[in-house]
Amino acid sequence: MNQHNFMNHNIQISGFKGEITDTKEIMDYLMDISVECNSEKCTIQLINARGIAGEKHILQATLQAIKAFERNKNMAKDLGLEICVRASAQRQISRALKILGIDNGKMDICMVAVDCDEQVQKKVGEILGEKNHQVLKPDVNSLQELYEISPEEIESAGNIERVMLERTALLNLEI
């Protein structure tokens, strides 16, 4: 787990290799964990890690989501969904969830927790399984296909992570 403190917010980012058998059960469990944190501000979002271009990418998206809520410029009603929207560089929640949403089956998962206690990673790991930070490393081919990124765009930006950082930053200008 990597922990970051920005703008008076504690952000935890972790990767997991897991198998989901019931997404509703997972969401209910996450809600219970949030309540246990004794904080109305605790947000836990699970994201399909195949759509993440590294930890900087998800951290930038999280910071943009927090800023959007602080400025009343959010597109989603909930911070977790706003993180998905920002990370996917999409303006539509449905498209963001299609790209980054979790589903039943084996998958690599990125967990983002904002303003939660330090036990959140352990508790999430109890249901998701094996913690594995390697799942946050970008898979260039998957990301190119998922986001329709050309080799020229990668060459221009320098690498796939920078492409996604640019796209998430540009989303702010479009809103």
UniProtKB/TrEMBL annotation:
Family per similarity comment: Belongs to the CGI121/TPRKB family.
Gene Ontology biological process terms from the UniProt entry: tRNA threonylcarbamoyladenosine modification
InterPro entries recorded: CGI121/TPRKB, CGI121/TPRKB_sf
One GO cellular component, as annotated: EKC/KEOPS complex
One Pfam family, short name: CGI-121
Stretch forming the signal peptide: none
Protein name: Regulatory protein Cgi121
Residues that span the membrane, as ranges: none
Alphabetically ordered keywords of this record: tRNA processing
